[in-house]
Amino acid sequence: MSYFQPSFDARSAAVRVRFGAGIRHKLADEIGRLGCHRALILSTPPQADGAMQLAADLKGLATGVFTRAAMHTPVAVTDDALAHARSVDADCLVALGGGSTTGLGKAIAYRTDLPQIVIPTTYAGSEATWILGQTENGVKTTLTDPKVQPEVILYDAELVRTLPVDMTVTSALNAMAHAAEALYAENRNPMSTMLAIEGLRAFAAALPRVIENPEDLDARGETLYGAWLCGTVLGQVGMALHHKLCHTLGGSFDLPHAETHAVVLPHVIEYNALAVPDLLAPVTEIFGGSSPGRALFDFARSMGAPTALRDLGLKRDDISKAADLATRKPYWNPQPVTRPAIDELLLAAWAGDPPAA
Ligand code: NAD
């Protein structure tokens, strides 16, 4: 199969990526390489011990630890972290964690242009993008800015071994959603398509092995590799209906981020396959099944992922409001987005039914 396109625009970020089990122990070298001497280490509260350990290992190179990163990057937390960064005179940021911690590092970098090193511990992929989502007064807004793009990523498979199995599965499906929507992105290019297909393949091959043995370092490494590819793709091309629906469900109904991606993805992919069957054929090839959405649904279910929005807390009566919000403003999607179609799609996702073509 060729990924050639007769014309395209492409964007690649200048990011230094180091990959390998134990690579976090090279953190001091990377701080030195940036010409920095006073790193502020960031984490969520549950990962505070890991952040403290990292700071201890860095000896004099760590100037502070801030462990209050939170989901959806609340601006109030960023303000506190920013004050802390200034009080300890930090000259670089080290984010140890998932998308929430990476988001906090990006939010500080957006305001200070401090260089960032990210050590990801989930598959969310935020470390590979120049996108920042922030929440203030209950409203989440998203921006893109070169200052937000982390300079260095250290992918260390040893650190994802502690990710609980249920979170492993939903985080992986969150990453796969970036790749699946990249296949039909309006601004896709041959490289984004290659990255997306290889990212999906990596998860298809390695996630079942991780579920069987969460300590399997090779399998954890391959899923992390998939996360890098899927995150890189997210930073290169625009997303469509799936991300719009998940943003709406998360923002307006407080549904959990990764779980919502896991439930919605097969339904949107089946819907969009009506318009772009050829572009989504690799999904069926990789996961095996009668159609791309069904292939993803069966894969997700076999991994133990949630399959129903009602199990995530969405009420039956919220479907019409969600459909309303998600169709209010026009945006690009390969299959035209109509209100009745979105009602039907959300109803199937709410009930946990297999996606309907
Ligand atoms: P998260 O970072 O909130 O992590 C979820 C929980 O798991 C946290 O309590 C965390 O401490 C814990 N955890 C993380 N890694 C662990 C590990 N290895 N072992 C044990 N516990 C661990 O969740 P997430 O799904 O990684 O990130 C979600 C956030 O990232 C959302 O706010 C989302 O909008 C954002 N995001 C942004 C982008 C972007 O490009 N801007 C991309 C993807 C996601």
Report the order of strands and helices. Answer: EHEHEHEHEEEEHHHHHHHHHH
Write the CATH homologous superfamily of the largest domain. Answer: Dehydroquinate synthase-like - alpha domain
- Helices, by number, come to 14
Helix fraction bin: 40-55%
How many β-strands, per DSSP? 8
CATH topology of the largest domain: Dehydroquinate synthase-like, alpha domain
User: Which strand-content bin applies to the residues?
Assistant: 5-15%
Distance between the termini: 25 Å
Give the CATH architecture of the largest domain.
Up-down Bundle
Unreliable stretches (pLDDT < 50, length at least 5) are none
Structure, explained:
A six-stranded parallel sheet has the order 1-8-5-4-2-3, sandwiched between helices. Strands 6-7 form a two-stranded antiparallel ribbon. It has helices at 27-33, 48-58, 75-87, 99-112, 157-160, 165-182, 190-212, 217-236, 241-253, 257-273, 277-287, 292-302, 318-328, 339-351; strands spanning 16-19, 39-42, 62-66, 92-97, 116-120, 131-136, 139-144, 152-155. The mean pLDDT is 96. The chain folds into two domains: 23-155, Rossmann fold; 165-351, Dehydroquinate synthase-like - alpha domain (Dehydroquinate synthase-like, alpha domain). Helix 6 runs antiparallel to helix 7 (190-212). The chain is α/β, with parallel strands linked by helices. Helices cover 52% and strands 11% of the residues. Bound molecules: nicotinamide-adenine-dinucleotide (NAD).
